[in-house]
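Run log // design_07
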């Protein structure tokens, strides 16, 4: 909501001073789809995510198997054996939760890997947009892909292909 209001304010402000300032749009999704390094990074992230998810699921299945075995034999177990089996089950479930957090938590491996792979690409795009904006005198460049409140924008102000060209990619 706050982002939409900011974009609407920016567009209103730019619209009010359109005679004095120039502005442009980019389509970040379009740009990223045309950068092979982004596609490669996305594939690498997907593969890592699948591998890690498989490891987490394996531990979860092991915990379920322990639980099922426990349930099947509960009538024949002593209190000490029940306690031991319950501790094993809890330990396995805790291991699965810790592994999930390690891989997929806010500071997890997937987050770190995504940042390491994507940040250089995003920085490159930002620098290209900044350079084009400086050369052409744009006061603001708005990302069409994330600006859901843009109802219409003339294709003539979209500089996405210029950004790709600046990065060495042609379309």
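design_07 sequence
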């Amino acid at each position: 909501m706050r982002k939409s209001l900011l974009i609407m304010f920016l567009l209103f402000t730019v619209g009010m001073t359109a005679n004095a300032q120039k502005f442009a749009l980019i389509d970040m999704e379009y740009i990223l789809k045309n950068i092979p390094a982004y596609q490669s990074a996305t594939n690498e992230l997907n593969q890592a995510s699948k591998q890690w998810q498989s490891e987490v699921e394996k531990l979860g299945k092991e915990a379920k198997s322990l639980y099922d075995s426990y349930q099947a034999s509960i009538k024949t177990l002593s209190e000490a054996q029940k306690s031991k089996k319950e501790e094993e089950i809890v330990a396995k479930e805790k291991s699965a939760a810790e592994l999930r957090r390690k891989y997929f938590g806010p500071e997890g491996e997937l987050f770190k890997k995504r940042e390491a792979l994507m940040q250089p690409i995003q920085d490159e795009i930002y620098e290209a947009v900044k350079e084009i904006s400086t050369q052409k005198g744009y006061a603001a460049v708005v990302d069409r892909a994330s600006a859901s409140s843009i109802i219409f924008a003339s294709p003539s102000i979209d500089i996405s292909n210029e950004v790709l060209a600046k990065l060495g990619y042609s379309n």
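The beta strands are 22-26, 138-143.
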